Amino acid sequence: MKLTDGSAKIVIGLIDGPVLTYHPDLVSERIRTIQGKAERWCTRADSVACLHGTFVAGILCAKRDSAAPGICPGCTLLARPIFPETTSGNEPLPSATPEELAAAIIESVDAGARLLNLSAALVQLPSSAGKRALEYALDYAAKRGVIVVVAGGNQGWVGSTVMTRHPWVIPVAACDLRGRPLSESNLGNSIGRRGLSAPGEGVSSLASEGKSFASGGTSVAAPFVTAAIALAWSEFPTASAAQVRLAVTQAHAPRRASVVPPLLNAWAIYQAMTAHSRR
């Protein structure tokens, strides 16, 4: 963060709730939106969907001088809302079907995203058709060189899902302030082998009406990983997605046997990319 605010050429696809684009701590000209079934912008600032989308957007790209500074405000945010604004404040986060999520992934890739942040819950366990749709969408992102970062989930399970087990995905677990996994954070072989842990306890970000609040979980942890990768990619814009993923892997112990992933180390990612660029 001392080296760069991020590059506008690094487009982060945010598949989440709608974003309160007129929030005073967001740079609205850096935010683009794609119309899905959900509203393109927040129509209810107190809805769970809007609060969640705005909170995650704040971690990614809030102004550095805000009460909750963002990590890469110089990057472009491509918001593709997937959650409808049907519930308010203290209700559970709305969910999406596997087919809706798959469509959002493909649309975000086609719209120019280079990174995708998925802090999304599915409304149901995917059927065979839903699994195929998600696998196709993730394969599509891989073929187009779009890195996909996925929240591991907050059910306290040890296992994997169609999202976290995909070989191209970087799954994210949530940790406390001492770097220990949260009890509700999902873990598993695929998360431990290819994923990272990131802050997921008491994280402050943007709320409605110019305010901020604290939240936690893997939905909060995922954008730390996404934004760290975006900053490193901004410094090395000609690197391929495969080279960036390799740097992330090399920076965080290439051979892993634990179900608990290593802690995010943004500086190690930068150093690995620096070393690669000198070859």
Question: Can you offer a commentary on this structure?
Answer:
It is a single chain. The protein is an alpha/beta fold and 279 residues long. The protein has a single domain (11-277), classed as Peptidase S8/S53 domain (Rossmann fold, 3-Layer(aba) Sandwich), CATH 3.40.50. 32% of the residues lie in helices and 15% in strands. The protein contains 7 helices and 9 strands. It has helices spanning 48-61, 98-110, 128-143, 189-194, 218-235, 241-251, 266-277; strands spanning 11-16, 31-33, 76-81, 115-118, 147-151, 169-175, 196-199, 203-206, 212-215. The strands form 2 sheets. The chain has a 7-stranded parallel β-sheet, with helices on both faces. Strands 8-9 form a two-stranded antiparallel sheet. Helix 6 (241-251) packs across helix 7. The longest helix is centred in the C-terminal third of the chain and has 18 residues, at 218-235. It is globular and about 50 Å long. The relative contact order is 0.16. The mean pLDDT is 90.
